[in-house]
Please model this.
Amino acid sequence: QLGLNKINYYAFGYMLGTMFLGYYLLYLVYYYLLKIDVHRKFNFLPKYSENDNRPVIIKNTIIQSAENCKGFSETIRQISDLKGKDLERFFKWLAGIIDGDGNFDVRNINSKLVLKAIRIKLHDRDIKILSRIQNTLHIGRIRSDKNKPHSMWIISKKEEMLFLINNINGLIRLKVDGLKKSCDYLGIEFKEANYNIEPNDPYLSGLVDTDGTIVFNYSGNRIECNLEFEYNKFTSKLNLDNVIPNYKPAILLRKSRNSIAFKYQNVKEMVFLYDYFMENRLYSDFKFYRVSKIKQFILVRNFKNEPRHSLEFKKYSEFILDWIQYKNPDWHKVPFVEKIR
Model:
């Protein structure tokens, strides 16, 4: 327990140390405001800890202990009013995220399809993506798996799922079956998305954040962006020809893997790849760092063919090593590393 002079004692559940300190500082502020405002003219909106059922003065936020959530270390919940926010581009990006690594958890319960939750699961390296979703929507919760390097954003309240489905309906192109079942459960009319992605649509950025790769092709001496999906009736309709202005991807069908790949791999068009992702940034820091270096790479690209001990080749080598080492613990396993060190 934490005691403060002239105010009640409050029982706190198990919290992270930083949150504990945050509460302490907030109560100090509250205490001194009460001393100043003797007539109690301040209008504080009380919220309640789900564990303690005691008031705290954090507006629009509920932070819940995860001690009862088996296998997870922390649960974060936030609820907020979204009025007045322009979220159109955000939801296009989010649709790409969901088409990549999202899941509509629809179950058959007593012969009826029930939407239990909507989830997005990502590697901890890309947790900034989940943070952006949480900080923008202020609904749902983020769970960190203490046994694996993964985190998951989840919404399971019907009103929250209704809000999300209403905003991504007409934007989902790959996880269509799950969206249709979710719409049926919530009583929403399903809207089919336009598969001809418009120029500079953030949808592609969301897809790359989750399912895309930004790689260095050593033999071709270029930075590439690649996407690969299972080939089906939905992915076969996906048209990415216009989304990056002046840059159409090569399309590769692999029958042996039943897959379809979209490859941005032309040297002359690398700058257009850069321009698109500067306007529609990636929230995977690992991938964004790589794509943000394209213009710098163009300046040193031709140094690859300079003598190995020359200053030019050293500049080239330093750039490539930095590029592949960033947030990549397995960089030393890359085959061409020995050729440039």
